[in-house]
Structures
1.
Amino acid sequence: MKVPFYRHSLKPEDFNAVSSVLTSPILTSGPVCHKAEETLAEFFAISGVKLVNSWTNGAVATLLALDIGPGDEVIVPAMTFIATANVVELVGAKPIFVDVDPDTFLIQTEKILEAITNKTKAIIPVHMYGQMFDVKRLRDAISKFHKIFIIEDSAHAFEARLNDLKCGANSDVAIFSFYATKNVTCGEGGAIVTKDLNLLSKIQQTVLHGMTAGAADRFKSGQYKHWGMERLGTKANLPDILAALLPNQIQNVYQQLAKREKIAQFYDQYFASKNIEIPKIGEGVLHARHLYPVGVPSSKRDLVIKILGENGIGTTVNYKAVPTMTYYKQKYKYQKGDFPVSEEWGNQTLTLPLFPDLNLEELEYIVKVFETKVFPVID
Ligand SMILES: *Cc1c(COP(=O)(O)O)cnc(C)c1O
């Protein structure tokens, strides 16, 4: 049997939505994006929404809009996907890594406070695996400093809530990813959500070269209008061809989450009596169940990945600690042990398949392979 790491659940109505864009005059950002932005604004109950072609490009556009660049510091977790730190490098600022909590693998407010200097311009907490970090507590804790922006890396957390609040409720801006394997996907894409409409108007420029009016808007009146450029921008807008995949998924997102939750609970129950580490979930969390990582002894991690692979089960590693990557290690001279929790988890963790259409037969097969092939070598 083969169990892929991920299988999307796009349906014929999604294919039809893309087809209808192909027969319309606008292929790039136009009415389909506008409509999806309205849907997202309603979903998050926040009026400022801009669709982008990736989390990464959206974050670069956001940092440019916030005037963050050379000489500035941005605090990021050491345990995350590399993109969280890379975007800070891309605008010429310095990522300041802090270690994560050994139970949840979320960035820690206490460690953030220790890392703040007068150069700190922003903090990018990550809602790891789909569990929300407590943004409100961070916001209150940093209120005694100069203005420091909170940019939520919400790539894993579209459906997530903490004490009934969604992403964006307590931060300056939240950024989502609609990459191929994310809970909501359009192949490549993302969204920026902000309550700050002044920031939104700057982001609308930085996602489109810095131009003062978007391509579709320029022709709205039927007459050509000159555009200007007041700030430097990148190219981060989402085309309508891809945005067409979003509305249906957003509408069904909590039905899909219920399926994800069931699968996660199946794994939880199986691993409860085993020598396997699973991230803990805090009070008041509605988990988005994006990823299901487990921790095994670091000396056996790669062997476990190999055994699962040989038995047709797809896995990934989310993630190796970012400061251990050659680029960061060499540039900032990090030593082994600088970020002990992130480094250790990065050597222990592997992620199992978790997607809404993963069926019981596939789950039972995964358990059987653990039972007969994995535990005999790690116990
Ligand atoms: C996927 C991911 C990103 C990057 O998203 P893209 O849309 O591929 O740019 C950033 N941060 C985290 C935590 C992610 O998982």
2.
Amino acid sequence: MHPTNIRVSIVQLRNNIIAIKKHIKSHVKICLPVKANAYGHGLIGVAQHTYDLVDYFAVSCLDEGYLLRKNSITKPILVFGAFDEDQIIDLILNNLEITISSLYKAQLVSIFAEKLGKKCKIHIKIDTGMRRVGLRPESLDALINFVKTSQFIELVGVYSHFASSDDIATDFTLEQINVFDGVVKKLKLEYPNLIVHLANSGGVCYYPTSHYDMVRPGLLSYGYFPSVIVEHGVLSEIKPCFELITKVVYFKTVFKDNGISYNHTYMTSSQTRIATIPIGYGDGYRRALSNKAVVLIRGNYYPVVGSICMDLSMIDLGCNGESYVGDEVVLIGRQEDLEIKLSDLASLMETIVYEVLVGFNERIPRIYITEKKNYVWTNL
Ligand SMILES: *Cc1c(COP(=O)(O)O)cnc(C)c1O
């Protein structure tokens, strides 16, 4: 086993989803976004360990949906992303539910589905203010008229996406809910079984009128709040389930006034002990953390010094710091009563938790810690 690994607490991940389920009304379905390797937590591991709790999985592209199907995930899978004409056959053959944002794409899908003699399930996406992909509300009638004529398209859902649901100080989210509401009220009369969905994590936390028939919380399911931490009620049980751990693989004494790592961006001010750990920006431990991050060894914080390399990083233990090869090093998570939060690392890098999480790549094995404490690991 590679000494660097990501530990995902399945107990906590499941508790997060259970808390969200308690927070939403009982008829509201839950769709778990597992795009971008399940926000770094591992696509297959997360899907397998949450399978019984969710109604839907969501991915961003064909390849992610294909991997889920390959690994026997038979639940409905919605593909959020825009697709290319070349991908339509495989989307249909893998029984993936496609996002439709234009009449043109609906017509293409219908043609391919007819060729395959297979119905294709679609969700129509409305642009209510994100201005990314999505149909303008005024174009909906034409699309619906086409969908009615196609025997190879099955309309199962309609959705939209928030632009700033993490910002509770603006009214823009309420405006988006308003626009969406106008569109879906009409549709629901004609299609009473339609799954109407809008809420991402921000919607789930801060906008109860956005829950409709299904919610799609990604970040929140993995244990992070989009902005304001909800400290009361059932959502207050939500916590991160992700830890990044490695081991000391080498250490040496370095004399005063010596430079450490590439370009000597750190100079020792006195004789000190430098530990080396087997993780670097090639794993997603970003170079922007050089001379900024700290790690936990033997219950103490120590700084990451010098430039983070592709595969290795250096830690300054100080002249009296004790550590030996094989010691556990916590880069994200808890050791004894101290903690390094992923959100603090994100702040150090002036970015968001999302970007840090998805940056940890498949070189780092994921270990799933279940209630029975049996560790299962996979790189996906
Ligand atoms: C990624 C995504 C989500 C989940 O967003 P979070 O902010 O992680 O909750 C929901 N809906 C769509 C369309 C997405 O692309």
